[in-house]
Design a protein that fits this description.
elongated; mainly alpha
């Protein structure tokens, strides 16, 4: 290894990565996001209009996406 790369490697070993959401709370966060997404998607399905798309549809899809990823990580499925 070159000297600068070795310096970066040593500096990185002194400060380990700490995730924003810990392993113990991933299941709770994922379940909550999935529940919110199903509620918002259900309301959006009942009242479909262009005006409801940014209010219900987009937050529902984002909550489902992040909730699915957190649930996959929480139950130990490696993607």
């Amino acid at each position: 290894m070159s000297e600068p790369l070795l310096d970066v490697w040593e500096a990185a070993s002194a400060s380990p990565f700490r995730p924003t959401v810990g392993k113990g709370s991933q299941f709770t966060l994922g379940f909550t996001l999935l529940l919110i997404s199903f509620v918002l998607a259900g309301i959006f399905g009942l009242n479909r209009s262009f005006a409801n798309l940014p209010l219900l549809g987009i937050p529902a899809s984002l909550a489902f996406g992040f909730g699915a990823v957190y649930m996959i990580c929480a139950v130990g499925v490696y993607v």
